Write a sequence for this structure.
């Protein structure tokens, strides 16, 4: 965050390093927003790194003449700031008391061109549940929000997650982290300039002006949804030997939503690639028809690859 030329004569390099460390963990929070364990670990690391900035700064500047007098009003400002008090309290919790489990809720429903449009909010979401699990379950429970075959380009089902501290349930946690990081960076900047080390460039992180990181949409997980926007059914699915169950989830124990009888072909859109979200033994499908019968309910399904034969359908001339 500081200019590298200025840092050559700066006596507080560890404070700068801790500030950059806290910044790094904000990005980790965003990257793992839909993975609860990784998100919580990144949040815990952020809280500790951010709080340690001023501890380290005080240590590095302790022998500088006049620092204590300059530091006292800055310290009073920080103690009076509600966000920084909450940061400190949360850091005490994760270091000395217990693991931190933030509150979690979501919007769930209809998205258009990547943005939430209509649905239900706030819905509680267990903080230990991955967003992909909620998305897969919600596709069935809230299926009336979407055309069963995703007939309109850019329209899909999705969710928008909200992580917050229980003490401030209305404040989204990444934005809270960015706000406190900016305030701490301002303190570092004021000390840096007072000590004659030069003016620091802004430490503000502008990477997350959009809240898209909170969204998890069908087309990001289920490739077949985007295929359905652009074409008639693209694949045919048939059992290899026995009737083929079409499942609610990619699990042997999942509920059967439909069954394809032996000798019958189902049509639809299939994700033919392996997914990182579930076992490679299963594939996902957006179902259009079984035999001659269109299917208009429970069209988001999974099937076991080893029990099925998949072939491409001819492209329509329309």
């Amino acid at each position: 965050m500081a200019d590298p030329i200025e840092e050559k004569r700066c006596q507080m390099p560890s404070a700068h390093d801790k500030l950059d460390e806290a910044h790094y963990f904000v990005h980790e929070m965003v990257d793992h927003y839909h993975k609860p364990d990784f998100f919580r670990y990144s949040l815990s690391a952020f809280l500790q790194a951010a709080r340690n900035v001023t501890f380290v700064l005080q240590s590095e500047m302790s022998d500088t003449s006049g620092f204590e007098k300059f530091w006292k009003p800055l310290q009073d400002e920080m103690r009076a700031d509600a966000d920084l008090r909450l940061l400190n309290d949360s850091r005490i919790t994760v270091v000395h008391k217990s693991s931190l489990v933030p509150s979690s809720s979501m919007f769930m429903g209809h998205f258009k061109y990547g943005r939430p449009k209509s649905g239900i909010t706030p819905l509680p979401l267990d903080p230990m549940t991955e967003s992909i699990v909620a998305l897969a379950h919600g596709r069935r429970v809230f299926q009336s929000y979407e055309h069963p075959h995703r007939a309109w380009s850019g329209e899909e089902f999705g969710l928008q997650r909200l992580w917050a501290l229980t003490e401030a349930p209305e404040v989204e946690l990444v934005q809270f982290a960015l706000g406190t990081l900016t305030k701490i960076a301002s303190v570092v900047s004021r000390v840096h300039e007072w000590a004659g080390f030069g003016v620091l460039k802004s430490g503000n992180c502008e990477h997350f002006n959009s809240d898209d990181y909170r969204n998890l949409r069908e087309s990001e997980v289920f490739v077949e949804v985007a295929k359905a926007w652009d074409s008639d059914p693209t694949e045919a699915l048939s059992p290899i030997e026995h009737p083929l169950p079409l499942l609610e989830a990619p699990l042997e124990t999942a509920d059967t939503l439909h069954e394809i009888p032996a000798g019958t072909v189902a049509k639809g859109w299939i994700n033919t690639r392996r997914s990182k979200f579930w076992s490679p033994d299963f594939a996902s499908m957006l179902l259009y028809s079984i035999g001659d019968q269109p299917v208009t309910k429970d069209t988001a399904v999974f099937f076991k690859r080893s029990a099925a034969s998949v072939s491409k359908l001819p492209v329509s001339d329309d």
